[in-house]
Design brief:
It is a single chain. The protein is α/β, with parallel strands linked by helices. Helices cover 32% and strands 22% of the residues. It has an 8-stranded mixed beta sheet with strand order 15-12-16-17-18-23-24-25, with helices on both faces. Helix 5 packs across helix 6 and helix 13 crosses helix 14. The protein is elongated and about 75 Å long.
């Protein structure tokens, strides 16, 4: 329960007995920032001018703060609202510090967490690292609350077509953006596997789920994928293609993996999310159930994998399995069975490299640096808030107008060096800038809030029994409709 009769956030500091509270604007009640579903908060919540916003991440209950998503958000937050900046300028000589409340994005608690942010805390904005279906349901459940949602991750056609009055934006694009990269990558994998196995015809399995993003991705792939010189429908009629779908409400991962093993595909393509690479997921079950043959030095018998953009965000299990193969003496080159599709990083890595250095300096050398989309999102949200002006109350619609001021004009980069320059450039009403993040110059579509992604290829190198992930080794070139770059992981695959 809240403590009634506060005027500003300062009034809630003493009643909170050290716990972070805010003075809720609608009824002047002190409400606690943190909850079971939203266990973390960062920033000066007792400041009378504080700006509160929500964020989501996949939290480990035993150690929620050790999290690559949170670290990326926190680095940006400390640069924008730490000791050096103290937040955004306000009226007169005041400052408006930023306060972030972090919630768990597990599907079982998202509804409760969003209710806490929207109804209890009345935040005007959320960094929504959520599955598209969860984001859509959350937006619709709280449509009466004027909240701005900026997703650091992917969108879907349904989300981009939602009548949201410009209040949902995404740092990454739709699944269909990745389809051309899959097509080119499957072409390379087909040539590689036919030569490696000395066969003229391949069998391919495609794995997806009923999740909205996975469904959009598999639908896009079904229209364009080809192998054996034929489309999927013809290959299926020939017995050379099979699709497998995980029902996320009743996964049955072992049963699906067993069916895949029975089918004996040469190539397994993932258009699936965590159910493919999670502990005891489909990939692990395929490998453990693949009976009847012992992998030789090249693991010819076992399938070649093409991993999805979602899988690219969590490859710990894949790396562990490759290492286990090496230690188990099943061959020195198990890495040669894995490639993946990912969202391409910036062609110019200057901002990304600078971000990586600051992130590791702040959170340690093992900090996951392929997290620039979360860092960028924090900067875009903050500058959109600044672009909304200082009129009270701060609303999601106002932040959406501020977001539109970041799309065109003089270029400014995210990062601590240009914060004051960006604020000065946005000080005049209706002046606009082009804000560029670590992901590079990918334009937003102001009608949908989405972006067009470029695809890239990842692989694993294995040198001296050390497995290393290599990202962006090949990039899809839309001009030439092919993958270009250098492939350092194993011979014979590219070109």
């Amino acid at each position: 329960m809240g403590i009634v009769d506060c005027t500003t956030n300062q009034d809630c500091v003493k009643p909170g007995a050290g716990a972070p509270y805010r003075c809720r604007p609608s009824d002047h009640t002190c409400v606690r920032l943190e909850s079971e579903e939203c266990p973390l908060s960062y920033g000066s919540s007792g400041d009378p001018n504080a700006i509160f916003f929500g964020a989501f991440a996949t939290l480990n209950p035993a150690d929620p703060e050790t999290n690559s998503t949170i670290w990326a958000h926190r680095l940006a937050l400390e640069e924008l609202s730490g000791d050096s900046m103290d937040g955004l300028p306000g009226p007169g000589a005041t400052r408006r510090p930023l306060v972030m409340i972090v919630c768990n994005n597990d599907a079982s608690v998202v509804e409760t967490a969003l209710a806490h942010l929207a109804d209890t805390l009345e935040v005007p904005a959320v960094l929504a690292t959520l599955k598209p279906s969860d984001l859509r349901r959350g937006f619709e459940a709280h449509a009466d609350r004027d909240i701005f949602y900026l997703s650091p991750v992917v969108s879907t056609r349904t989300l981009n077509g939602l009548n949201d009055n410009g209040r949902i934006w995404h740092m990454l694009g739709e699944p269909a953006d990745m389809a051309p990269t899959y097509v080119s990558l499957l072409g390379l994998a087909e040539k590689y596997e036919k030569a490696r196995r000395d066969v003229t015809t391949l069998r391919v399995a495609l794995v997806t789920t009923t999740d909205a993003y996975d469904r959009d991705l598999s639908n896009a792939l079904s229209l364009v994928l080809k192998f054996n010189g034929k489309d999927l429908t013809t290959n299926e009629a020939d017995g050379n293609y099979a699709g497998f779908t995980v029902d996320t409400t009743d996964p049955q991962l072992l049963d699906i993996a067993t069916s895949i093993v029975t089918y004996r595909p040469h190539i397994v393509i993932s258009a699936a999310s965590e159910s493919f690479t999670q502990t005891s997921g489909i990939f692990e079950h395929i490998e453990s159930e693949w009976d009847g043959e012992i992998p030789n030095s090249e693991n010819v018998g076992r399938p070649f994998y093409v991993l999805s953009p979602f899988n690219a965000g969590d490859l710990t299990g894949i790396k562990s399995k490759i290492n286990a193969f090496i230690r188990g003496a099943t061959g020195p080159t198990p890495n040669r069975r894995f490639v993946g599709v990912s969202v391409a990083g910036a062609a110019d890595l200057t901002l990304q490299n600078q971000y990586a250095t600051r992130l590791r300096t702040r959170f340690g050398k093992d900090a996951y640096t392929d997290s620039g989309n979360y860092y960028d999102a924090t900067y875009f949200l903050t500058y959109a808030i600044y672009g909304a002006g200082t009129a009270e109350p701060l609303t999601g619609s106002g932040i959406a107008r501020g977001m539109n001021r970041l799309l065109e004009g003089q270029r400014f980069d995210v990062g601590p060096d240009l914060i004051l320059d960006v604020q000065q450039a946005l000080d005049k009403d209706d002046d606009t800038i082009e804000l560029q993040g670590t992901l590079g110059p990918r334009p937003f579509d102001p009608k949908t809030g989405g972006r067009l992604d470029e695809g890239s290829v990842l692989c694993f190198s294995a040198e001296d029994s050390q497995v290393t992930l290599k990202s962006d080794v090949l990039r899809y070139d839309r001009g030439s409709n092919e993958l270009v770059g250098d492939f350092p992981c194993f011979p014979g695959f590219y070109p």
